[in-house]
């Protein structure tokens, strides 16, 4: 086999997105996945691409904003290249407003969005009855609506990236024994954080288990919801995903257990359309959370030609377009545009 210019280790969203971006720029790319595409949290069902609140602005929030604004063009390019629909749709998000204090805060955040989002999206208040039968009841009669939130289907998005990489001449291999060559990007998710902790002699992060549920409900044109800690995401295929739990302590990261049932019970009360919707799937997986809670990006200290992209946690799909851009800049061009707080060294 010819030596790859770039080898990406890991078939989760960061690995796939970086491999695609390097491939799109003309690099010879080989992606190696030890088990299966989306073996970790990238094989989930939720796919909520939602922004941070527009206040107390920082580099992490700016990075995510740029990524969410890039997302439509990014996923359109992926779909055109490989012919697989990732299920992307920028349909916004609704959140009920519980009391007068929350209403005042929402108004303040709306003003913040005007300044920080610069007309590329809005954060506003709408009457609750505008989405009757879909959105939860709001104690104040108002809902927060933002037009920046989007959704995609994680499994379809992962397969769309595989198809795009292969269509552009890249290799995607499922091989537990394959070894990398060339410049190497380690995007190995929660197991990779354990490996990095061992390599650096200190904890750089850990896996956090999440559980989610998938319902049969045709709400394809509806905005996603965020209410009482739950993300409710209508997909284009006639399903609605609801997630998720966050569990630091667990024995089996892939085992669905009794901590999911309260989520199912809660959403049937909160969302009228799901009250009697058939339950199609219960899902569990482990998400990689870095010590800094931000993505962990950059060169591997002490290993020339090796790079790290990990720690997507709950925002991996939303961050992926921008992560792919800055990592391709670094790996292919030696140009370091990784913001403060995202660097590997920030977790050491």
UniProtKB/TrEMBL annotation:
<protein>
    <submittedName>
        <fullName>FAD-binding oxidoreductase</fullName>
    </submittedName>
</protein>
<feature type="domain" description="FAD dependent oxidoreductase">
    <location>
        <begin position="6"/>
        <end position="330"/>
    </location>
</feature>
<dbReference type="Pfam" id="PF01266">
    <property type="entry name" value="DAO"/>
</dbReference>
<dbReference type="InterPro" id="IPR006076">
    <property type="entry name" value="FAD-dep_OxRdtase"/>
</dbReference>
<keyword id="KW-0560">Oxidoreductase</keyword>
<dbReference type="InterPro" id="IPR036188">
    <property type="entry name" value="FAD/NAD-bd_sf"/>
</dbReference>
């Amino acid at each position: 086999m010819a030596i790859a210019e770039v080898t990406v280790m890991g078939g989760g969203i960061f690995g796939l997105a970086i491999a695609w971006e390097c491939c799109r720029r003309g690099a010879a790319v080989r992606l190696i996945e030890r088990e299966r595409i989306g073996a970790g949290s990238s094989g989930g069902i939720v796919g909520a691409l939602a922004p941070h609140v527009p206040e107390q602005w920082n580099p992490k929030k700016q990075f995510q904003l740029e990524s969410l604004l890039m997302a439509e063009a990014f996923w359109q390019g992926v779909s055109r290249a490989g012919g697989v629909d990732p299920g992307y749709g920028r349909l916004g998000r609704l959140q009920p407003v519980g009391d007068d204090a929350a209403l005042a805060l929402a108004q303040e955040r709306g003003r913040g969005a005007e300044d920080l989002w610069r007309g590329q999206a809005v954060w506003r208040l709408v009457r609750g009855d505008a989405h009757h039968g879909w959105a939860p009841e709001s104690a104040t009669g108002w809902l927060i609506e933002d037009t920046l939130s989007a959704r995609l289907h994680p499994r379809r998005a992962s397969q769309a990236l595989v198809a795009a990489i292969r269509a552009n001449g890249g290799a995607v291999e499922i091989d537990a024994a394959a070894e990398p060559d060339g410049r190497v990007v380690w995007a190995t998710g929660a197991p990779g954080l354990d490996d990095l902790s061992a390599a650096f002699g200190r904890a750089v992060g850990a896996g956090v288990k999440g559980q989610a549920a998938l319902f049969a409900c045709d709400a394809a044109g509806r905005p996603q919801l965020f209410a009482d800690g739950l993300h409710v995401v209508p997909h284009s295929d006639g399903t609605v995903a609801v997630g998720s739990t966050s569990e630091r302590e667990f024995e089996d990261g892939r085992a669905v257990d009794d901590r999911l049932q309260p989520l199912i019970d809660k959403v049937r009360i909160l969302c009228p359309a799901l009250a009697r919707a058939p339950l199609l799937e219960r899902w569990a997986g482990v998400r990689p959370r870095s010590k800094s809670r931000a993505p962990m990006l950059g060169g591997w200290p002490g290993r020339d030609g090796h790079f790290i992209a990990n720690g997507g946690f709950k925002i991996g799909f939303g961050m992926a377009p921008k992560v792919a851009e800055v990592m391709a800049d670094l790996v292919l061009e030696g140009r370091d545009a990784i913001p403060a707080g995202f660097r590997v060294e920030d977790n050491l």
